[in-house]
Structure formats: C-alpha cells, structure tokens
Design a protein that fits this description.
With 50 residues, the protein is mainly alpha-helical. The chain contains 1 helix and no strands.
Length: 50
C-alpha cells in the first residue's frame, strides 16, 4: 500500500487595522509632545530660578 500524503494548508491572515495604527501613532505623538512640553517648561522657567 502506498502511504497517503497529507497536506495541511494554513492560511494566515495578517490584518493591520489602519485606524488602530493611526490611533496608536497619535497617542504616542501626544505623549512625546507632553513630555517635551514639560521639559521645555522646566528648562525655561524652573532651572533659571536656581
């Protein structure tokens, strides 16, 4: 008897939701803007007091 050849096809769908990617980008961009804003405030107003 001949051996049966078993073929298993795996379909992998990689879906990137462009809305989710955009929301994540905006979120981290906002974090960076807030961080640099606080840094600018400290350098401009707080450090000169010392």
């Amino acid at each position: 008897m001949a051996e049966e050849e078993k073929r298993v096809e795996v379909h992998r769908e990689e879906r990137t939701d462009s809305g989710m990617v955009g929301a994540t980008f905006i979120k981290y961009a906002a974090y960076l803007i807030i961080f640099f804003g606080i840094l600018w405030f400290l350098i401009s107003f707080v450090f000169p007091m010392f």
